[in-house]
Write the structure tokens for this entry.
Amino acid sequence: MSSFDTDHHRVELQVNGEQRTVRVRAAETLLYTLRDHLGLTGCKPGCNNGDCGACTILVDGLPMKSCLMLTVEARGKQITTIEGLIGTDVQRAFAENQAFQCGYCTPGFIMNCEGLRHAHPHANEETVRVWLESNICRCTSYEEIHRAVKDVFTSHTDKGRNL
């Protein structure tokens, strides 16, 4: 057996609805597996310590910073990347509200918003604010991002809510 065989683990992942198999080191984070092994470059490396949110994906429907999760921990989980949300209402709302500038952080914000929509379909202003705190944008004022998130919620929930 070569050292490659003993140092690497075969991991089956469910990514964007597809079964994918990779061979990774035990210490490899999901961020780099998605980018380097699967070519899903929408999740971005930023701080690599969970502070910025540029690498946010959904794991079983909830936002997760992929720089903090080992690939081997993702076995049996449903993983969704920004590539899995093409054409969704959340993506459309961000585009229509011009909720981006350079765009580097945008996939993370979109993933976080999608997770929020599923976890709290009737989120109030405070819940939205708290969830958006987990992502950082260094280019914009967040006003457009907040407007995009508000549009997602008002188009899918009770119009009488105050967001």
